[in-house]
Amino acid sequence: xxxxxxxPVIISGAGIVGLTLAQALKKENISFQIYERDTHLHARSAxxxxxxxxxxxxxxxxxxxxxxxxxxxxxxxxQHELTDVGSVFLNLETAKPRFVIPSNFRRRVSREKLRxxxxxxxxxxxxxxISGFNPTKNGILISFSDGTDVEGSLLAAADGSGSNIRQxxxxxxxxxxxxxxVRSLAVTVCLPEEKANRLQTIAPLKFQGCHPDTGYYxxxxxxxxxxxxxxxxxxxxxxxxxxxxxxxxxxxNDDVPETNxxxxxxxxxxxxxxTGFEKTLRETIEDIPDGTEVFEITLADWPTIPWHGFDGRxxxxxxxxxxxxxxxxxxxxxxxxxxxxxxxxxxxxxLGEKTRSEALADxxxxxxxxxxxxxxxxxxxxxDAHEIQNLxxxxxLITRMTVALxxxxxxxxx
Length: 414
Prior knowledge:
The chain is built from 13 helices and 20 strands. Helix content is 33%, strand content 23%. It has a domain at 3-51 and 110-178 and 301-383: FAD/NAD(P)-binding domain (3-Layer(bba) Sandwich), CATH 3.50.50. The chain is of the alpha/beta class and 414 residues long. It has helices at 3-6, 16-27, 56-62, 67-72, 80-83, 111-119, 164-175, 193-200, 226-229, 260-272, 279-286, 331-350, 356-384; strands at 9-12, 32-35, 49-52, 87-91, 96-101, 107-110, 124-125, 130-135, 140-144, 149-152, 154-157, 178-179, 182-192, 206-210, 217-224, 238-248, 295-296, 300-301, 314-316, 403-404. Helix 2 (16-27) runs parallel beside helix 6, helix 2 (16-27) runs parallel beside helix 12 (331-350) and helix 3 (56-62) crosses helix 12.
């Protein structure tokens, strides 16, 4: 084995994509080490649910046998196959569907539980922030902010949308975010079974929509059912759900309020603006308890461009390579596909079928083109989400698996 192949692949970032790559390299008996800047697994918030659909085969390919059953166990709804009827895009004024997105094979899972599942058998080096790197004869020397360093065959950066590695490679001007003129707030809500059931008559798992007059957007999705959160059979069974609202920035008054109190008040205000959201939707928002933590989701992206990776020594994957808005629900799927494709190229290198430089060049050639396109499609979807009157079946917000519902003759606002 050549000296470079004896060195470990260094993975930066122990999120879902970095851990999937680690599992894939472990399965292929390719030496690796994974580093994470957070001090422990639960250092960050639990995060939202994610849908795994087109990347499901790729994820399975990266994992040991038996993973399919384990993945089912971290679904937000254990009855997913029975309850999933797809998703709908609503007119928020009426709560009537404007578009129906039919069900396809997918797993809607808890991000936190999936991350924990992917950590099994992986030794993560935590509290390690990469501060720089330099090429060596056989690979790359990586420096950490604590003064230590490590040499690896290459650095695979899966360190998230604000990737430190991307900015070290390209600088802030080329590697920094593009913030969109859209603002978004999100909360986790705890819903009594009766209230959740009313929302589930719209769609059992998730729905989204826009108000025709104000352009305000809403997303709702289940995070856990009583069977998942152990409240089933208790005195007060409940559902946990994610609720997002967003709006276009048209002036200084559209900025996100600074305090949590004002952010929550702003969400409730948006639901009442103009003709207001439909009664069930509006009351769901108005009933959010005082003191509920409200998160701002920064809507920013980076259409992927090539970088100088020191002849196959540094590469990007996942959100580090193509950070995008969440309106198409594709980011995690692209990242999981990256992990599988990078694993296959590294396997070809270790088998002597390619040089390291060739393997990384082949991985990046496909990923950069697809990543750039995906980011721009998600950007367009984000903007389209706030213009229901102009929304059509060919919008990237709606495309993939969509049936458009005709407008009724007596109400062109449905």
